[in-house]
Description:
Elements (H helix, E strand, L loop, with lengths): L18 H9 L24 E7 L10 H14 L5 E8 L3 E8 L6 H20 L9 E5 L5 H14 L9 E2 L5 H5 L7 H4 L21
Antiparallel strand pairs: 1-3, 1-4, 2-3, 2-5
Helix pairs in contact: 1-4
Amino acid sequence: xxxxxxxxxxxxxxxxxxxxxxxxxxxxxxxxxxxxxxxxxxxxxxxxxxxxxxxxxxxxxxxxxxxxxxxxxxxxxxxxxxxxxxxxxxxxxxxxxxxxxxxxxxxxxxxxxxxxxxxxxxxxxxxxxxxxxxxxxxxxxxxxxxxxxxxxxxxxxxxxxxxxxxxxxxxxxxxxxxxxxxxxxxxxxxxxxxxxxxxxxxxxxxxxxxxxxxxxxx
Length: 218
């Protein structure tokens, strides 16, 4: 992770909406096994500016290349080093064996998610091919654009709990943030009453990309 920060506690970055709506959005990511060649973007939206995005990137053919600790550590380092200069904060991320979850916040009006993701995937993909051969990433990426009523804690909780759902335990090392410490991320469950976080919610998120990500918990 990127070390200590003087930013305010996570509670202060929570958007104005209620936890259940954010949990609906995060929970909807588990609803489909469909993997398209290139996920579609939200029509008419520029993906530029001070917005928050929940992004998922899958490895090519969902091959679990990040089961190897050296590979998982490497891509974690690439998240920490390469996104920081691009006008984005990585509020939370998690590297799983065959996919990566990221929660971004654009810090300037020039913050361009599509360009940033293209460049990051290109750089990491090239480095991977030089060292290991073959293609690392599936084309494109899945995204959900968070609206003002979406819950940031709900998304963070989904990301942080992903390893737990897969049976890797709560001390999984490839979870982090460019702004917050691991204990702050792990404390996301305390941001709202437990009854809100455990409500079974299955409504499809509106306003994100047209194709939901595949099931990331199996």
